[in-house]
Design brief:
The chain is of the alpha/beta class. The protein is about 45% helix and about 20% strand.
Length: about 80
């Protein structure tokens, strides 16, 4: 599973690609099986991160505390 980390209110940057009706249906279904949007806000509340690959985005939108918490998440995944 691939987890796309972003700020909750900025998932609009990726969500349309997951709903793109121009994409062939089998490809879209495969993408939806393999990719999950996960907000930093949700990730910070989890006791354990699911196994998978993580894409960290929106780093410029995180405040200093969130940046530190994202670094802790990244470190836990290494």
């Amino acid at each position: 599973m691939i987890f796309y980390l972003s700020k909750k209110h900025h998932q609009y940057t990726m969500r349309p690609r997951l709903r793109d009706l121009a994409m062939p249906l089998p490809l879209r279904e495969e993408l939806l099986r393999r990719l999950r949007l996960l907000s930093y806000e949700e990730a910070f509340r989890l006791n354990a991160l699911p196994i998978g690959s993580y894409i960290f985005t929106d780093l410029d939108r995180l405040n200093p505390e969130q940046t530190e918490r994202a670094a802790i998440l990244w470190d836990a995944l290494r």
